[in-house]
């Protein structure tokens, strides 16, 4: 079967880096686009290029929005360090971005190819700008599979997940755009797919530049979860949005209407899913509720180990 064609829109980020490696093994990645999020745009772009360099990937990287639509830019150094990819020793990056027009790249790529999946795993700024500038792409995409939001607890605030909180207006535009198929991998789902010391050990046992680099990423990322939450396991958020395209049979989805709170004093960035039995709200989203974690983890570790 042909691999799904995707554009991976990301803000690397430890889990974004793993999502890149996973996506390349199971998809035809037409482009990687970057956005301000876990770190400033300059860093997230450099980090995407770094992953391409380490893994020997020939995929164009286009830099995108350097700030959210309306709110000030915010980053996540507590989870990802100042560089966005703290942990392993950082090699010099020799690759250069293909352009600084991620939005143009998204629009042109969707117009040029049938059935492209957009897979945003950072704040939704680029995607919102693209659907606003070129509404014709809404009906052309195969779907949007995003990591963001939560049906339940948040992480940045009690009610909001980072990607949606960081640009709530963009997220609202994307959920309301009328895209025929939107899949949402929120925190309620991604916390079911965690890596721990066993996965780091498996990557080290495999050896090779990429597995060892990712093992060190895991160690840094895990140490943060251990310190902040007392957990010996850390969620692989962003790979879930890739797997929802490549291996949807691992998930249980529920069709829901999802909207985004943009203004609430306590609830900015909350994804409000209408779960009322018998609601007459028309679903705009397939919310992922559960994932078969064991095979999903094998796919992630297997993908990383497939690089030398
Ligand atoms: C999301 O925020 C980022 O820190 C991660 O890369 C992920 O995309 C989780 O809330
Ligand atoms: Ca991310």
Characterization of the model:
This protein is of the alpha/beta class. The protein has one domain: Inosine-uridine Nucleoside N-ribohydrolase, Chain A (Alpha-Beta Complex). The chain has twelve helices and twelve strands. It has helices spanning 14-26, 41-55, 77-80, 102-112, 125-133, 162-166, 168-175, 187-190, 197-206, 209-229, 237-246, 293-305, and strands spanning 5-10, 28-34, 61-63, 116-120, 143-147, 182-185, 194-195, 234-235, 251-256, 258-260, 271-273, 285-291. An eight-stranded mixed β-sheet has the order 3-2-1-4-5-6-12-9, sandwiched between helices. A two-stranded antiparallel ribbon has the order 7-8. Strands 10-11 form a two-stranded antiparallel ribbon. Strand 1, helix 1 (14-26) and strand 2 (28-34) form a beta-alpha-beta unit. The protein is globular, with a radius of gyration of 18 Å. The mean pLDDT is 97. The structure holds beta-D-ribofuranose and calcium ion. Residues 13, 15-16, 38, 76, 79, 121-122, 147, 155, 161-163, 237-238 line the site of beta-D-ribofuranose. Calcium ion binds at residues 10-11, 13, 15-16, 37-38, 121-122, 238.
């Amino acid at each position: 079967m042909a691999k799904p064609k995707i554009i991976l829109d990301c803000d690397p980020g430890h889990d974004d880096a793993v999502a890149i490696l996973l996506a390349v093994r199971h998809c035809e990645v037409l482009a990687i686009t970057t956005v301000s999020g876990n770190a400033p745009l300059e860093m997230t772009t450099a980090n995407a290029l770094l992953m391409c360099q380490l893994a020997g990937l020939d995929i164009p990287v286009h830099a995108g929005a350097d700030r959210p639509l309306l709110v000030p830019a915010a980053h996540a150094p507590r989870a990802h360090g100042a560089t966005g990819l703290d942990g392993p020793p950082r090699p010099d990056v020799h690759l250069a971005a293909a352009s600084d027009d991620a939005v143009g790249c998204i629009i042109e790529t969707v117009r040029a190819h049938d059935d492209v999946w957009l897979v945003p795993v950072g704040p939704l700024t680029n995607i919102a700008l693209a659907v606003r500038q070129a509404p014709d792409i809404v009906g052309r995409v195969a779907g949007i599979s995003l990591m963001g939001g939560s049906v339940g607890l948040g992480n940045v605030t009690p009610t909001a997940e980072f990607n949606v909180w960081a640009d709530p207006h963009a997220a609202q535009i994307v959920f309301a755009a009328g895209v025929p198929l939107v899949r949402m991998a929120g925190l309620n789902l991604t916390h079911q797919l965690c890596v721990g010391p066993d996965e780091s050990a498996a990557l080290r046992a495999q050896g090779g530049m990429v597995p060892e680099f990712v093992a060190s990423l895991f160690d840094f990322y895990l140490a943060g979860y251990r310190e902040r939450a007392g957990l010996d396991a850390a969620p692989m958020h962003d790979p879930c949005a890739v797997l929802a395209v490549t291996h949807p049979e691992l998930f249980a989805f529920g069709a829901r209407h999802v909207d985004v709170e943009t203004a609430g004093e306590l609830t900015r960035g909350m994804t409000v899913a209408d779960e009322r039995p018998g609601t007459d709200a028309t679903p705009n989203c397939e919310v992922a509720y559960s994932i078969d974690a064991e095979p999903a983890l094998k796919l992630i570790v297997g993908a990383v180990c497939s690089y030398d």
